[in-house]
Design a protein that fits this description.
3-stranded antiparallel sheet; 1 helix
Length: 132
Amino acid sequence: MVKKAILLLIFFCWYRMGFNQIPSLDLLVGTYTNGVPDTGGFLFSFDTASGNLVKKAWANQLVNPSFLTVDASSKVVYACTDTKLPSKGSLTGLELPTGTNQFRVLGKQGSEGENPVFVCSAEQWVFVANYN
């Protein structure tokens, strides 16, 4: 059911925003790992002509890397991690993969609250917001 919902959302965005003029799009997808370190946080390539979605890369040993953003200038992916847990959450920096299918963890910092649910970057700053 979730995969169908994601594909419908991608198709809707693709159709409404005219992305059919672009040959392919890279998509970052956040995930939940049931609160344990596991494979999560994916980079997909979406072929706008065929509608095919291909998994290009993923991160290992992260806990619930749910909300993601990319810092375009540094090509670092920031992920809200350790979400949906009774303890404080965190923010993890990941290097976009080049020549490999694995994100490399650059560092991890506590978000100073539970359930980080939003992350954005601006110049040298990274902002995270917690639900609790």
